[in-house]
Structure of Aminopeptidase N:
Amino acid sequence: MSQKTAKYRKDYQAPKFTIDTVNLVVELDKTNTRITNTMKIKRQGEHSDALVLDGEHIELEKVVLNDQALNTSDYTVTDSTLTIEVEQNEFTLTVVNTLNPSTNKALEGLYLAEGTFCTQCEAEGFRRITYYLDRPDVLATFTTKVIAPSADYPHILANGNSVEHGEEEGKPFVTWHDPYPKPSYLFALVCGDFDLLEDTFVTREGREVALQLFVDKGNLDRSEHAMVSLKNAMRWDEERFGLVYDLDIYMIVAVDFFNMGAMENKGLNVFNSKYVLANPKTGTDQDFLNIESVIGHEYFHNWTGNRITCRDWFQLSLKEGLTVFRDQEFSSDLGSRAVNRIQNVKVIRSHQFTEDAGPMAHPIRPDKVVEMNNFYTVTVYNKGAEVIRMMHTLLGETGFQRGMKLYVERHDGAAVTCEDFVKAMEDANDRDFTLFRRWYEQAGTPSVEVETAFDTDKQQLIINTRQTVPATPGQAEKRPMHIPMRISAYAPNGNRIVLAENLLELTEERQSFYVNGEFAAQLASNEEPIVSVFDDFSAPVKVQRDLPEAAMLTLMAHADDPVSRWDAAQQLFTSRVVDAVKSQSTVEVDKALVDACERLITSDTDPALIALTLTLPNAATVGEYFETIEIDTIVHNLRQLKRHLAEHLHGTMSARYAAIYDELQQRDYRLSGEDIALRQLQNVLLSYLTVAGENYVNLSQTQFDNATNMTDRLAALQASVWGNASNAITLVEAFDQQWRGDKLVMDKWFQTQALADTDGTIANVKTLMKHPDFSLDNPNRIYSLLAAFTQNSARFHQFDGAGYALIGDVICQLNDKNPQVASRLISSFMSWRRYDAERQALMKQQLEKIQALPNLASDLQEKIENSLAA
Ligand code: B3K
Ligand code: ZN
C-alpha cells in the first residue's frame, strides 16, 4: 500500500454519485470468499467525472455495467481504487471480487477467526470487502445473501430482517434485507456456530422485537446480564429520550477476536466477548457495569449514529460524543450517578488531558486526519461527551430534550454535521451558541484561574476568573471559551449558603462575577464563605486556585456535590505529592488529613464514595501538574503517601474492612448497588492494609481462598501483587491453576501482573508472553498484558529503557499483523518530550526504530510523524 496522505475537514465535497440499493451475494469460503455486488447508482449534479470506487486488499474478477461485461480496458484498478468512465446518469453496476478471510489478522473488513466469519467496517473496512463508495454520506438500502461454506455454520447473519433461507448445492444460505438506508460502515455479517439466548422486548407502541444474543458454545451461563442490560437500555431510551427501536429483530454476537469494545452495525451488533460474557464467578462488578454501559452505548447508536449518521469522519464526535453522553446518563440513572461521574472525570484527567497536551492533540472535531482509525480517541469520545454535557448544563434537561427532539425531526435518515446538532440545540431553545462552538474548534485543555473574595459591606461574593487555552499542534492562537462553572458556598462549619446563582458562564479571558446570597444566615461576623467551583466537574478544564487547606477539608467533608467532595480530597492528596516532588523531599501526611480520612472511613457516607475518595490519583493525573514529568519521584511519593496513610489508619481501616467482610459473608453474592459499593470499599481498604505491613497478609490470603465471586478473588490477588506482599506468588499460581484456559478470566491475571511494580516485572511480562493463554493474534490478550503494562508508570518508564524496548519490539511485530492494535500501544510514547533527557532519548530511539520499518502502517506513521515533529 502506498502511504496515505492527510485529509482536511475544509476540503469536504459532496459525493459525485450516490448508491440507492446494494445487492450483495457473499459466497463464504475460508480462503477464497467471492462477493457479487450489484449497485444502483445515480450521478449527483451536472458533471462528467468518472466513478471512483474504494477497494483495498481485494481481487477484482469482473465488472458489469447495465448487463454488459466490461473489458479490462474500460476501467482502472489500483491498490485502493476502481475507476470506471460511465456516461449514463443512472445505471446498475455489478462488481465481482474475491478475498481471503483467513489471512486477515488486522480484523478489519471480513475475517475468519477461530471458525467464525465476522466483519468490522467502521471506519473504512467495507472497502476490504467489495468496491464501493465507502464514505458515511452515501446511504443505501442493503440486501445481503450470505452463503455459508458448509452446514457446519448454522448461524448466518446480516443486517435487517431475514427474508429468505434455504440451501444451494448443500450449502445453507440466508438472505437479509435492511429497510433503513445506511452507510457502508454499518454493514455487518457473521457466520458461525453459536449458542443462542433469546428474549423479546415490547416497545411502548406495543411492537414485539425479537432479541437474540449469540455466544460461543458453552457460554450461555455468562450471557444473562447482557440480555438484561439490553432490555434496560431499550426501555430507558424510550423513557428518557423518547426514542423507540425500529426493526423487528435486534441481534448481538459476541466474538473473541475484536479490535475494540463493540460495533453498532444496524440490527446486528458485534461485540468483543469481554463486554458480553460474565457471571459472578468469572466477572467482576466492574465487568458487569462495563457490559451494561457498552450494551447501552451500542443500542443508543441506533438513533444517534445509525438513523442520524455522520456526513464525514471529521464529524465522528457527532455520534460518539453524544452516544457516550447517553450511555453515561443511562448508567447514572440505573446505578450511582456520583460514582459514574467520578469515574468519568478520572478518565478525562488521566487520559484526555494527556492527549490534549501531546502531539496528537486535536479538537473533538478534528481538522486533519491521515488514518481515521487513529481518531477514535478519548478526545472525540469522552471530551466530546463533556461538550454535550455542558450543553445539557446550559439548557437543563427540558431544554436539552427539546433540542434532541428537533435534531431528530430535522435529520432522521440523513448524514449530518456537529454544526447541525448545535444548531438544533440553539433553535429549539432560542439560544446563541456562537462562542460555545469553540469547543468543537479548539484543541487543548483550558486552564481557569479562580480567585474568590467576600465583600462584607455589600454581603457579596466576588469571583475573579482568568481562562487560557494552551497552544496545540497547528493551533498557536486560542480564543476564550464558553465555560459553564457551577458553584456553591459554605460556611466554615460546612453549612450550605444559599446563593442567588449557582451557574456562572465564563466567556471572556478575564471576568469578575458578583454573587449575592443569604450569607448572614450562616456566617459569623468574622467568617468568610468557602466557595466550591466547577461542581460536578461542570467543564473539562484544569482549575488553578489557592484555597487554604482548612477550606479544602471543609469541602471534602461538607460540599453538597459528591464530585466536589471527592475532588477536594484528590486535591489535598495531589498537592502533597506535587509539593514533595517540587521541593525534592518526601511526602508527609499531617494530622488534619489523617483525621479527615478517619472520619470518612467511619462515616455513613455511600461506601463507594469513600472508596473512590481513598483511591489516590494515578501518576498520569499527577504528571499533568508538571511541565517535565519527574516520573520516578511522582511514583515514589504516591507510593509513600499510600503507605503513610495506611500506617496511620490501619486500625480504623481493618475494623471497617472486617465489618464489611463479615456482613458480606452472611449472604450470597448480589449485583445490587449496595453490595457493589460495599465490595468496592472492602477492596480499597484491603489494598491499603496490604501495604500497612506483613500483619495483614492473612487478609488477602483469606479473602482469596474464601471468595465466592471474581470481584473479591481478583481484588485479593491485586492487593497482594500490587502491594508486593509475601503471598503474591502463591496467589498468582493458584489463580493460574484455577483459571488457565479460560481466556477472558486469564486476561485479569495478565493485567494484574503487568501492573506490578517490581524489579522483575519486565522479565515477567516477557515470560507471560509465552504462556499458553497468550497470543499476539488476539487484541484482548495484547490489551490485558501489554497495553496494561504501558500504564504501569513505574516500569514502562524504567530508567534503563527496558520497558520502552519491550513495547517497541511488540509494535514492530504488530505493524504488519494488526496496525490498529499497534497504534494503540504506541500512544504511550507520544508524550516523550515531557520526560527527562535520558528518557526522551530512549523513547525517541524506539519511535525511530519503528519508523524505519518496511511497510510502516499509516496508523503508526501518522502518530510517529506528529510526535517527532518539532
Ligand atoms: N463505533 C465503534 C468504533 C469503531 C472503531 C473503528 N476503528 C464502536 C462505538 O463507538 O460504539
Ligand atoms: Zn460509539
Observations:
- The longest helix spans residues 631-665.
